Structures are given as C-alpha cells and as structure tokens.
C-alpha cells in the first residue's frame, strides 16, 4: 500500500520523487517471494516496480548497455499479460487503483 501511494504521488499532480528504493527491493525479491505474490493474485506491485526501474534505466545517462532496462520492461509486460483478468481490470479501472 505504501508503494502504491508513493507511485500515485510520483505520477500524480504532486510530482513527488519516484519510490526507487521500494521498486528495487521488489524487483530483487527472492524467487519464492515473487512467486508468492503472483500466486496470491497480487502481481501489480511487481509490474509497477519493473516499469519504474525500466524507466530509470532507459532515461538515465548510459552506464553501458541499456539492455537491462528493456529486460525490466519485458518482465513487467509479461507479468501483466499473465495476470488474472481481475488483476488486469484493476490495473486499468477507473477510478484508478494503480497509476497506469
């Protein structure tokens, strides 16, 4: 819920700093924890974490290959496509539950 609120503040009108610490924490979760989030039908925090990390890596000055940024983007899209219809609905519903 805290990550979701911070994303809303970042992408909303207040233009707060992006929640990068939370995003990097989520994308680096151990495989078992990631699987538990997905199995509990709650992949959206992971999806937005991958999108935020991807955004950072693709618009930052190049430290080398930007392939890692694209890999995070691809992972986010893969998770979104594999999400349950209910979760997909929540991602794009109005009023928005997530800042898509």
Can you offer a commentary on this structure?
The protein is mainly α and 100 residues long. It is 67% helix and 0% strand. It contains six helices and no strands. Helix 2 crosses helix 4 and helix 4 packs antiparallel against helix 5. The two termini are 16 Å apart.
Helix content: 55-70%
Specify the overall morphology. Answer: globular
> What is the SS-derived class?
mainly alpha
Strand content: under 5%
Task: Give the H and E element order.
Answer: HHHHHH
Total number of helical segments? 6
Describe the protein's topology.
Blueprint: H1 2-11, H2 20-27, H3 31-39, H4 44-59, H5 67-82, H6 85-92
Descriptive labels:
100 residues, mainly alpha, globular, 67% helix
Summarize the structure.
This protein is an all-alpha fold and 100 residues long. It has helices at 2-11, 20-27, 31-39, 44-59, 67-82, 85-92. Helix content is 67%, strand content 0%.
């Amino acid at each position: 819920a805290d990550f979701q609120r911070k994303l809303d503040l970042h992408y909303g009108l207040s233009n707060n700093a992006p929640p990068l610490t939370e995003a990097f924490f989520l994308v680096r979760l151990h495989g078992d924890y990631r699987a538990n989030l997905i199995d509990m039908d709650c992949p959206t925090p992971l999806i937005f974490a991958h999108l935020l990390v991807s955004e950072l890596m693709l618009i930052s000055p190049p430290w080398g290959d930007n392939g890692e940024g694209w890999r995070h983007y691809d992972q986010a899209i893969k998770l979104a496509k594999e999400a349950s219809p209910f979760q997909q609905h929540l991602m794009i519903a109005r009023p928005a539950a997530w800042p898509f």
